[in-house]
Amino acid sequence: MDPTREPTHTRCAISACGWCDRDGVECRFCAGTGWWRPERPHRDGNGLVVWHRIDEPCRGCAGTGKEHSPLAVS
Ligand SMILES: [Zn+2]
Ligand SMILES: [Zn+2]
């Protein structure tokens, strides 16, 4: 995990979100970083497929780094 990365949001767009109120539950998609880094295939001019790594705010937690999935309820 890159220590320079910080979650982009402290809370998601939902006011009074119960998931944002929880502490210590890291998003399982981004491990609490608020970012995910998928690789996307890109076909270059020669027909070769190259993979580009992209960084974008995690969709699983709206960039908060906190678990937001009801499936994680224990
Ligand atoms: Zn939330
Ligand atoms: Zn996440």
Strand order of the largest sheet: 1-4
Work out the number of β strands: 4
Mean pLDDT: 87
Low-confidence stretches: none
Fraction of residues in H or I helices: under 10%
- Calculate Rg over CA atoms: 15 Å
Shape descriptor reads elongated
What is the count of DSSP helices, taking H or I runs of 4+ residues? 0
Q: How many angstroms does the end-to-end distance come to?
A: 26 Å
Secondary-structure element string: EEEE
Q: Give the percentage of residues in beta strands.
A: 15-25%
What compounds are bound to the protein?
Answer: zinc ion
The main pleated sheet reads as: 2 strands, antiparallel
Count the domains: 1
Q: Would you tell me the structural class of the helices and strands?
A: mainly beta
Protein name: HNH endonuclease
Organism: Nocardiopsis exhalans
Please give a structural write-up:
This protein is mostly beta strands and 74 residues long. It has one domain (1-74). 0% of the residues lie in helices and 19% in strands. The protein is built from no helices and 4 strands. It has strands at residues 35-36, 39-43, 49-53, 56-57. The strands form 2 sheets. Strands 1-4 form a two-stranded antiparallel ribbon. Strands 2-3 form a two-stranded antiparallel ribbon. A hairpin with a 5-residue loop joins strand 2 (39-43) and strand 3. The model has no long low-confidence stretch (mean pLDDT 87). The protein binds zinc ion (2 copies). One zinc ion (ZN) is lined by residues 27, 29-30, 58, 60-61, 65. This is HNH endonuclease.
